[in-house]
Design goal:
Layout lengths: L1 E9 L2 H10 L7 E6 L18 E6 L5 E2 L5 H5 L5 E4 L7 E4 L8 E4 L2 E2 L22 E5 L15 E5 L11 E12 L4 E11 L3 E12 L16 E14 L2 E15 L7 E18 L2 E17 L14 E17 L4 E18 L13 E21 L4 E15 L13 H12 L4 E17 L2 E12 L3 H5 L5 H5 L9 E3 L7 E14 L5 E25 L5 E30 L3 E16 L13 E10 L2 E10 L17 E12 L2 E8 L15 H7 L12 E3 L1
Parallel strand pairs: 7-10, 24-27
Antiparallel strand pairs: 1-11, 1-32, 2-3, 2-4, 3-9, 5-6, 7-8, 9-10, 11-12, 12-13, 13-14, 14-15, 15-16, 16-17, 17-18, 18-19, 19-20, 20-21, 21-22, 22-23, 23-25, 25-26, 26-27, 27-28, 28-29, 29-30, 30-31, 31-32, 32-33
């Protein structure tokens, strides 16, 4: 891998043009994981108050970890307690301490992004490219109410860089370019960022692209079907600095012509999204104000890619259109030298239309268009107040309350036909249309976070949060009762069919989170952090079995039909991280060791059964070395047996595995060359959260338990 960056301030446009033309193709960008050690992450684009359970992933040329994936969620797995629920090549679903999918609030530049697919193929982080990423904040424990409502699982906030400006009378030109190649899936990609600015105006462009074939599994596993993808992203940001603050407008376009999903019946055959975000940031004598307004338009299509049968017979086209818009406003009011009152409000609107066009000549998929969600609407209005107090230099607290009003509705639906082939769906549509679709919730939340540093090198943190989240539109309004129609619903990757429930209640979670950190030796010294947690969820949205599914011949298929229901659940566990210097000398450079460990237990409190997609015991051990321009790392990733599985969904067990990864990089002036080998021993393993290997099942008829993990891959 080669990466180069440049930053110049000049009044010569000719110099700018020459610099741009001379920039070589460069390497894959790097990301660094570090802990947030301050209550206010001002270095992270003023993302707000954070505690010991908050982590930052930022774009840094001196980073220790080279991103070897096009999927930001995969990169976040280096954070203890964060897991990636397998999906497509650049769109895994993040899970924080056992709570995943849309139970985790994800924002991009301050705006929440709605998933626009019945299989959640386009989650928010699929619109964030690791090559152009500036910073991502992850809060695993008790998240302040100012970070948003309508979630019970934590916060992931991704932000692009604030506009850069030049000194008065000068012109600033800065940028970087990068490119990468991965051997396993023949993935190629690159990115470019460039800024031109004077002291008042700033114009920045960021673009990236990536393309990959199906990857190979570990030793003897062969190619893993439906793992190919292609995508491009473009963004233009204009900033204007005035006497009353900073105004920023960002327009972005994300396009993917295809993406395979090894654990879904369908693949993505188009995802096109454009977004416009405007933000105002102002600082005043009384405090600070930030206002963000946004709109995103997503067109999403699904069908079968070649390795699932292609479209020779028309396949099963599915078409989804989502329009989201909203506004958020936050004000930090300095009450005195030690207290800040943070108040704000948010309005978010989602409009969803999900239809499945008829297939000419098909007896089952026609003659009508199947209306899955017709004119679905979800509006949320939230207000909050939060008091951030520094009682002493050693003791601080963040206490907040929030209320979110959520209103949902949808129109009437229709099946492909009313004949015998679609009788179940025809009857279900009739019953659905006769029912009242309107759903209103009032969700109250509160958080309290206390932080105490009794002595140098010791920090204690305790927090409590009451969070509530209303069901999404699919959980309420997915009405199909046929085997095929219900199996097109579900972001769980298990092959089962899912049916909505108009009677669902909001999920209400009580979370207790703690953290203790011992440190010494300064910034490069040793550190041990222990983070226990416990979450009890009333009316957790899970699923109950309502039927066994059969194939076209009427024989059992091995899959079941499930309906979303409310149950009581709990999650408990601990995250541990540690680091320590090993040596530092002129002759042998500097070396340090880092380690993480995560333990999680999630269960249905009524039955005592395990919950779905819970990560088994896992950890990492990394040895890092730096000498002069060279930096290197050897990392061992350890995952235990997954033997606690959800019996309702027929979840599969997976065996323990160990992966060895090595990386090295050399920096020469503004250019960085790097090389990485993932899974050096070419270990064969199954993904614990990968679901069922439906890509192989559709092609061969053999049901593999889970998609295979990637074999040895060299990237550079």
């Amino acid at each position: 891998m080669i990466r180069t960056a440049f930053n110049r301030s000049t009044t010569s446009w000719l110099a700018i043009a020459v610099a741009l033309a001379a920039t070589p193709a460069a390497a894959q960008a790097t990301l660094q994981l570090r802990d947030v050690e301050v209550e206010t992450t001002s270095a992270a684009s003023n993302l707000g108050p954070a505690g010991l359970s908050a982590h930052i992933v930022d774009h840094d040329a001196a980073a220790r970890r080279t991103a070897s994936s096009s999927d930001v969620t995969e990169i976040l797995r280096a954070t203890p307690g964060v897991a990636a629920q397998g999906a497509g090549g650049f769109s895994s679903l993040p899970s924080i301490r056992g709570l995943g999918e849309d139970k985790v609030i994800v924002t991009v530049d301050g705006a929440p992004v709605d998933m626009a697919c019945p299989n959640f193929m386009n989650p928010p982080l699929s619109y964030v490219d690791p090559l152009t990423l500036d910073v991502v904040l992850v809060i695993k424990g008790v998240s302040p109410v100012s970070f948003g409502g309508d979630n019970i699982g934590g916060v992931i906030a991704a932000r692009s860089a604030d506009p850069k400006f030049a000194e008065p009378g000068k012109t600033l030109f800065s940028g970087e370019a990068s490119a990468f190649y991965r051997s396993n899936d023949d993935a190629v990609g690159g990115a470019m960022q460039a800024t031109v600015a004077n002291d008042l105006w700033s114009v920045a462009y960021a673009g990236s692209g990536a393309k990959a074939r199906n990857y190979r599994g570990g030793d003897g596993d062969g190619r893993v079907r439906a793992t190919e993808y292609a995508k491009t992203s473009h963004a233009l940001t204009i900033g204007r600095r005035t006497g009353v603050g900073l105004f920023t407008v960002k327009g972005s376009l994300d396009y993917s012509p295809y993406e395979g999903f090894p654990n879904q019946w369908m693949d993505m055959t188009l995802n096109r999204s454009w977004a416009l975000t405007g933000r105002y940031q102002g600082a005043f004598a009384w405090g600070a104000l930030e206002v963000t307004a946004y709109h995103r338009d997503v067109r999403h299509k699904m069908n079968f890619l070649d390795d699932k049968g292609g479209d020779a017979d028309g396949g099963m086209p599915m078409d989804t259109w989502v329009k989201s818009s909203g506004v958020t406003a936050k004000a930090d009011i300095a009450l005195d030298a030690r207290q800040t009152l943070r108040v704000g409000g948010e309005f978010h609107h989602q409009a969803l239309d999900d239809s499945w066009p008829a297939v000419a000549g098909s007896m089952m998929m026609g003659p009508n268009t199947y209306l899955n969600v017709n004119d679905g609407r979800r509006d949320r209005f939230g207000v909050f107040a939060e008091l951030d107090t520094h009682w002493t230099d050693k003791l601080s607290s963040v206490i907040g309350v929030r209320h979110d009003a959520v209103s949902m509705n949808t129109g009437d639906v229709q099946p492909y036909s009313t004949g015998m082939m679609s009788m179940k769906d025809a009857m279900a549509a009739q019953a659905f249309n006769a029912a009242d679709h309107k759903h209103d919730d009032g969700n109250l939340g509160a958080t309290a976070l206390l932080r105490y540093a009794p002595t140098d090198g010791v920090t204690l943190e305790a927090g409590y949060a009451r969070k509530a989240q209303s069901p999404n539109l699919y959980q309420l309004y997915a009405w199909g009762r046929g085997a095929m129609s219900s199996q097109m619903i579900g972001w769980y990757g298990d092959g089962n069919g899912y049916v909505g429930n108009l009677g669902l209640k909001p999920q209400k979670a009580d979370t207790f989170s703690g953290a203790v950190q011992f440190a010494g030796g300064g910034e490069d010294g040793w550190r041990v952090k222990i983070e226990p947690f416990y979450t009890r969820v009333a009316d957790f949205i899970d699923a109950r079995k309502i039927a066994d599914l059969t194939n076209m011949m009427g024989m059992p298929s091995g899959f079941v039909q499930l309906q979303f229901v409310n149950v009581d659940a709990e999650f408990r566990g601990v995250d541990v991280s540690a680091q320590a210097p090993l040596w530092s000398s002129a002759a042998f450079g500097r070396a340090r060791i880092e380690a993480t460990l995560s333990a999680l237990h999630g269960e249905n409190r009524a039955t005592g059964a395990p919950l779905y997609r819970q990560m088994p015991l896992n950890g990492r051990i990394a040895l890092q070395h730096a000498k002069g321009p060279w930096t290197s790392a050897v990392e061992l990733e350890l995952v235990a047996d997954k033997d606690r599985v959800d019996p309702v969904r027929n979840e599969r067990k997976t065996a323990a595995y160990q992966l060895l990864n090595v990386r090295t990089a050399y920096q020469w002036k503004t250019m960085t060359l790097s090389l990485a080998v993932e899974n050096l021993a070419n270990q064969s393993y199954d993904l614990p959260l990968g679901g069922v290997s439906l890509g192989d099942y559709g092609a061969t008829g053999a049901l593999r338990q889970t998609p295979a993990g990637a074999a040895r891959s060299t990237s550079g």
